[in-house]
Amino acid sequence: MSDKALLVDWGGVLTVPLDGAMAAWAQADGIDYEHFTDVMRTWHSLAQAEAGGGPGAAPVHALERGEIAVEDFERLLAEELAARGSHVQAAGLLGRMLAGLEQPDPLMHDLVRRARRAGLRTVLVSNSWGNTYDRTGWDELFDAVVISGEVGMRKPEPRIFHHAAALADVPVEACVLVDDLPWNVEGARRTGMAAVLHRGDTAATAAELHRLTGIPF
User: Fold this and answer.
1) pTM (2 decimals)?
2) Which of 2, 56, 115, 191 is the most exposed place for a label (fewest CB within 10 A)?
């Protein structure tokens, strides 16, 4: 077993790209996608303004930590979208939104399998939106699983990266994170981890992991 660990995100890394799935949901639900991204920007800005966040600070971050019920989040999001001119049914909103992320990226799944066969400890680190995951095959992919809503932490908080490293039984400096969101990559690097920004190109991600770990993919 290697003394290094691969931490990998779920949505947008081991699944189809996040933006495409979200845009498809917006079209199906008849909302303006720009209205959704504006809500997300507003909520993320709110969290940055209130150091430490916490319940009531930014609904999306509270949802990711498991601090707010799915139904309450759906109601808040529907209200914010309606205020911008996009009216949507609140009930079942997250299920419709995340349905597109049920489609896996087989190339990235294979990359994780190869990493594990090569001796890297593999840990899933995912910010959940109250969603359930199809965990079929996870035993062969991951040595450990960290779901934000289950552990009360979210990326890019340093504590979730330290928690994942501890589960892998390696120091944070021996970890490499693969994530599709720049702020998560930057947060991991601030803890001392290496990190790769996945842009939907498995070959490019594999090449960068080879450079960082010395393991050919």
Assistant:
1) 0.92
2) 56
